[in-house]
Amino acid sequence: MKIIIAGYGRMGHEIEKTAIQRGHLIAAIYDTQDDWKKKPVPEADVVIEFTAPDIAPELILSCLNMGIPVVSGTTGWNDKIDTIKEVALRNARTFFYASNYSIGVNIFYKINRQLATFLCNMQNYEVNIHEIHHIHKKDAPSGTAITLANQILENCRRFKSWSFENKKNNSIEISSARVGEVPGTHIINWESEIDSIEIKHTSHNRQGLALGALLAAEWIQGKTGVFGMEDLLSEVTTRNN
């Protein structure tokens, strides 16, 4: 594959390294908005985008309009994602989005949904989510924490919303911490007066995220539509069985 990397921070560097290890070609690297204005856009099979929430929507739309498939991992712009998906579907483009590309996190998602189903009718349990990331992360709460909260809402109707560091009635409270160079930790705690049930995912580095994004980029080749990690993992699981 010929890959354009959009965003050359920690994730961009990790994607570059992993892509080369997997035998792919880096067609171009764009780190800033000015880079896109100054450098011509080469032919490419995919853009892998980890930029910032304030520039991601416009950048993704531009790439889709050029006919280049996009794998996006930027979080913090959920209010615009439906528009992107609609454009991709209407114009037969290819857009793959995930709030977290780690295979381990996506297994964690499945456990989270199942636990929410088990505990939903046990009114004595309340739930909260705590996430920890490096000090350079610009959005809070993390996209992964929001995904986890929305999964609980979908599987446990007694909670009506999630709230960020401001507990409200019938809500799932999310709290955040920004510490050092922590790649990402997410903790879900179901607590009652009797006991607590906690599930936790800890990323030790960014390799899993980069690998997941590249697996997504490889998987969408020849496909059109809007996809996510559930689509990728479902096909991989079915094939392996």
Descriptive labels:
single chain; 241 residues; alpha/beta; six-stranded parallel sheet
C-alpha-based Rg, rounded? 19 Å
Distance between the termini: 27 Å
Largest sheet descriptor? 6 strands, parallel
Run of helices and strands: EHEHEHEHEHEHEEEEHEH
With strands numbered from the N-terminus, the spatial order across the biggest sheet is: 2-1-3-4-5-11
Shape: elongated
Strand content: 25-35%
Tally of individual helices: 8
Q: Name the helicity range.
A: 25-40%
Q: Strand pairing plus helix content: what structural class?
A: alpha/beta
Instruction: Let me know the number of strands.
Output: 11
Spans of 5+ residues with little confidence (pLDDT < 50)?
none
Rounded mean pLDDT score = 94
Architecture overview:
The chain is of the alpha/beta class. It has helices at residues 10-21, 33-38, 56-65, 78-90, 103-119, 143-155, 207-219, 229-240; strands at residues 2-6, 25-30, 46-49, 70-72, 94-97, 126-133, 161-164, 171-178, 184-191, 196-203, 225-227. The strands form 2 sheets. Strands 2-1-3-4-5-11 form a 6-stranded parallel beta sheet, sandwiched between helices. The longest helix is centred in the middle third of the chain and has 17 residues, at 103-119.
